[in-house]
Design goal:
CATH architecture of the largest domain: 2-Layer Sandwich
Bound molecules: adenosine-5'-triphosphate, magnesium ion
Largest sheet: 8 strands, mixed
CATH class of the largest domain: Alpha Beta
Number of helices: 15
Strand order of the largest sheet: 1-5-6-11-10-9-7-8
CATH topology of the largest domain: BirA Bifunctional Protein, domain 2
């Protein structure tokens, strides 16, 4: 309803104090990516629609019914709010010739848009972190990417709640033979297919394996397994990934029904799931997409990557009782009279320059109410500026988190400021 002036359905504000968890998470991700040598790439939120249609595939949930596509009213161009990150990463790599000197390891983070039915863990604007390694063909990159996600779960303290499933989709030639048998099997059980599955039976039967409908899922259990149609090279790649995972002590399940909701994958696919988030169980998913770069018009090069849903991962963190550190400043400065502001403001500026985080009280009020605010800010210290103390070049310092007797105010000189800086950090 346009006149409600609320946020759009399925699109959420991220407000404090919750936003602190997001900031903390983003910091963990930045450090993780740096530790593996992945570089940050930022692409626009809007792309030309054909980029997604061609890469994700016409007969997929995303392209058939989830994309926010529109015509630019000013020039008639077909545009789409990005539903995922990989297609744009590949486009940007081609456009900027990023692969001219060999492989590139890249990561991104940001909002994605899909017109889905909003529910816990499923939104219309949601956020992903993605990692993509382009130009590397070996199973070692697949393993590195999977282990990188594991490293993140460890940092976040949720490893115990995650499980890894992997599968191998082979190459398109291998999928052709499987497809014939899969269609025949599904046709034999046509009465158990829902509308989506029947429609996909001929256009994109592999998609049927990805159905969320429990009845179709049950049927799929007995379907021909793609893994039984794979040739030597595909199986060797798959075994390569598995042996590296074993070498790194990472447990996994081979799930022969695991396919992904996007068409560009081949060989390795994987999902990190959890049993703590109900139906929205997949927190991170990805795989190899060796054909995509050439398909979008680049020089053929192999690639592999994953994306994780930030909302789901943060939800899992909450489920696990992991509370990210609150975003509190080191100190909260209070002042006995607003007239002191011209003296207090420059001191606070100097403290911040020296690396101290200071929240300066504004809006007046009694000392008592200011101290309440200081406490609520989560700061460890209260800096108490009084007229008499300032005249003597001093400031009061109070430990807001110490034991009762440690909470006595003590006085520190403002010159040199270093004494105060040391006391506050
Ligand atoms: P699902 O099967 O849950 O619909 P998907 O296969 O469509 O997921 P991907 O396109 O692989 O998901 O995206 C990677 C990750 O992004 C997912 O594993 C999930 O954590 C997250 N994700 C996808 N769609 C949404 C959404 N609408 N809301 C929140 N998170 C999402
Ligand atoms: Mg989906």
């Amino acid at each position: 309803m346009a006149d409600r002036l609320s946020a759009v359905k399925g699109m959420n504000d991220i407000v404090p104090p919750r936003s602190a968890a997001w900031e903390w998470f983003e910091q963990q991700v930045r450090e993780l990516m740096r530790s593996y040598g992945y570089q940050n790439l930022r692409t626009p939120i809007v792309e030309y629609t054909p980029l997604f249609v061609r890469s994700i595939g016409e007969v997929t949930d995303i392209v058939e019914k989830e994309m926010y596509s529109f015509t630019d009213a000013l020039n008639g161009e077909p545009l789409t709010l990005r539903p995922e990150g990989t297609a744009a990463v590949v486009r940007a790599c081609i456009e900027h010739g990023l692969l001219h000197d060999g492989g590139k390891r890249l990561w991104y983070s940001g909002p994605m848009f899909r017109h889905e039915r909003p529910q816990r863990g499923r939104y219309r604007q949601f956020h992903q972190v993605g990692a993509e390694a382009l130009g590397f063909a070996g199973p070692d990159v697949d393993a590195e990417l999977i282990l990188m996600a594991r490293q993140l779960w460890r940092r976040l303290g949720v490893s115990e709640l995650t499980t890894l499933e992997i599968n191998c989709l082979g190459q398109s030639e291998e999928r052709v033979r499987h497809r014939v048998d899969l269609i025949a099997y599904l046709q034999r059980h046509a009465d158990r297919l829902d509308a989506d599955a029947s429609r996909r039976l001929h256009t994109n039967p592999l998609r049927v394996l990805d159905s969320k409908n429990p009845q179709v899922q049950e049927l799929v259990q007995g379907a021909p397994r793609l893994i039984d149609y794979l040739g030597e090279a595909s199986l060797a790649h798959f075994e390569g990934v598995q042996s590296l995972l074993r070498a790194a002590g990472q447990a996994y399940t081979v799930n022969p029904r695991l396919v992904r909701g996007l068409d560009y994958y081949n060989l390795t696919v994987f999902e990190w799931t959890t049993d703590r988030l109900g139906a929205q169980a997949t927190i991170c998913a990805g795989g190899r997409y060796d054909g995509l770069i050439a398909q979008i018009g680049g020089k053929p090069a192999p690639a592999c990557g994953w994306a994780l849903g930030i909302e789901r991962v943060l939800e899992l963190l909450a489920e696990a009782g992991q509370t990210p550190p609150a975003a509190a400043p080191h100190a909260y400065a209070v002042l006995s009279s607003a007239e002191l502001m011209p003296h207090v403001l420059p001191v606070c500026e100097a403290l911040r320059e020296a690396g101290v985080q200071v929240q300066l009280h504004m809006g007046g009020g009694s000392m008592k109410s200011q101290m309440k605010k200081a406490d609520a800010s989560g700061a460890r210290w209260a800096l108490v500026f009084g007229e008499e103390e300032l005249r003597q070049g001093q400031v009061g310092l109070k430990d807001l988190r110490g034991a009762q007797d440690a909470q006595q105010q003590r006085l520190l000189p403002l010159d040199p400021l270093q004494h105060l800086v040391c006391a506050l950090r």
